[in-house]
């Protein structure tokens, strides 16, 4: 079983749609969780951290369920500029980031 | 603030040749990482440095890959000899805290 698993998509949605991405992780000792965004042929950039209490930043909401070892990202009112690959990322104590394969989102007008 | 710098941006070599990549992290960032990102995959850690010491190189194919971070600032990653399956983007990242890593633009390697 892979350490971090994501549905690769692609998710093709119209502008204004709400879209949700899911991610599961295998190691219960995982301590920190993030969503990174990677545009085509660009480097990954931190989108937001994920907490059990939930984390909202504008149109983006991230949630962590430690019991189910499940992370989610919700994007409301999708914009064309949201088109990118969204990488689920996990850190265990003392380790570097462990990335999922990414979920590709394509928002069309 | 200047970001993470990497060079070259693109490199094409034939299999069995050698290649080296260079990374200059953000000033003051003690931790430096090299990742390999194969097309369609997420980045995979190759090696992590804390200052000039190696923290984690468990996924570095040591028979052909080597990396160093002399003086705890710049770093080089070398592949010798290259194989077809080494074709990927090599990303360097640096961080001051574990929470956020800042990535460079990457070096896109094609092995023919």
What secondary-structure arrangement, pairings included, does this model have?
The complex is a heterodimer of chains A (109) and B (112).
Chain A: E1 4-6, E2 11-14, E3 19-25, E4 32-38, E5 44-50, E6 55-57, E7 60-65, E8 70-75, E9 84-91, E10 98-99, E11 103-108
Parallel strand pairs in A: 2-11
Antiparallel strand pairs in A: 1-3, 3-8, 4-5, 4-9, 6-7, 7-8, 9-10, 9-11
Chain B: E1 5-7, E2 10-13, E3 19-24, E4 31-37, E5 44-50, E6 53-56, E7 65-68, E8 75-79, E9 88-95, E10 102-103, E11 107-111
Parallel strand pairs in B: 2-11
Antiparallel strand pairs in B: 1-3, 3-8, 4-5, 4-9, 5-6, 7-8, 9-10, 9-11
Write out key terms for the chains shown.
heterodimer; A: 109 residues; mainly beta; 6-stranded mixed β-sheet; 5-stranded antiparallel β-sheet; 11 strands; B: 112 residues; 7-stranded mixed β-sheet; 4-stranded antiparallel β-sheet; globular
Outline the structure in words.
- The complex is a heterodimer of chains A (109) and B (112).
- Chain A contains no helices and 11 strands.
- Chain A has strands at residues 4-6, 11-14, 19-25, 32-38, 44-50, 55-57, 60-65, 70-75, 84-91, 98-99, 103-108.
- In chain A, the strands form 2 sheets. In chain A, strands 2, 4, 5, 9, 10 and 11 form a 6-stranded mixed β-sheet that branches. A 5-stranded antiparallel β-sheet of chain A has the order 1-3-8-7-6, with no helix packed on it.
- The model of chain A has no long low-confidence stretch (mean pLDDT 92).
- The interface between A and B is medium-sized, with 21 and 19 residues.
Q: How many E-type strands of chain B?
A: 11
End-to-end Cα distance of chain A, whole Å, is: 37 Å
Beta-strand portion of chain B reads over 45%
Shape of chain B: globular
Tally the helices of chain A: what do you get?
0
Count the E strands of chain A. 11
Q: Calculate the mean pLDDT score of chain B and round it.
A: 94
- Give start-end ranges of low-pLDDT stretches of chain B: none
CA distance, first residue to last residue of chain B: 37 Å
Q: Low-confidence runs of chain A (pLDDT<50, min 5 residues)?
A: none
Instruction: Please tell me how large the radius of gyration of chain B is.
Output: 13 Å
Strand content of chain A: over 45%
User: Strand pairing plus helix content of chain B: what structural class?
Assistant: mainly beta
Give the helix proportion of chain B (percent range).
under 10%
- In helices, the fraction of residues of chain A equals under 10%
- Which structural category do the helix and sheet elements of chain A fall into? mainly beta
Largest interface, chains and sizes = A-B, 21 and 19 residues
- Rg calc of chain A: 13 Å
- Indicate the mean pLDDT of chain A: 92
Element order of chain A: H for helix, E for strand: EEEEEEEEEEE
Shape, per Cα inertia axes of chain A? globular
């Amino acid at each position: 079983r892979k350490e971090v698993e994501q549905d690769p998509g692609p998710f093709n949605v119209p502008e204004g749609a709400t879209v949700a991405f899911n991610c599961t992780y295998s190691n219960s000792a995982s301590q920190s969780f993030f969503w990174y965004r990677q545009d085509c042929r660009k480097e990954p950039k931190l989108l937001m951290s994920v907490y059990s209490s939930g984390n909202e930043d504008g149109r983006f909401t991230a949630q962590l369920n430690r019991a189910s070892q499940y992370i989610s990202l919700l994007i409301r009112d999708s914009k064309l500029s949201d088109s990118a690959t969204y990488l689920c990322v996990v850190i265990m104590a003392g380790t570097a980031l462990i990335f999922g394969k990414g979920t590709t989102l394509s928002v069309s007008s | 603030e200047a970001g993470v710098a990497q060079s070259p941006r693109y490199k094409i070599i034939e299999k069995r040749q050698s290649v080296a990549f260079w990374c200059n992290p953000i000033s003051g960032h003690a931790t430096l990482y090299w990742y390999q990102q194969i097309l369609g995959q997420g980045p995979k850690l190759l090696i992590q440095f804390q200052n000039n010491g190696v923290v984690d190189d468990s996924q570095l194919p040591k028979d052909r890959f080597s990396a160093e971070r002399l003086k705890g600032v710049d770093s080089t990653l070398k592949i010798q000899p290259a194989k077809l399956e080494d074709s990927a983007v090599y990303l360097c990242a640096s961080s001051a805290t574990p929470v956020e890593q800042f990535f460079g633009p990457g070096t896109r390697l094609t092995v023919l």
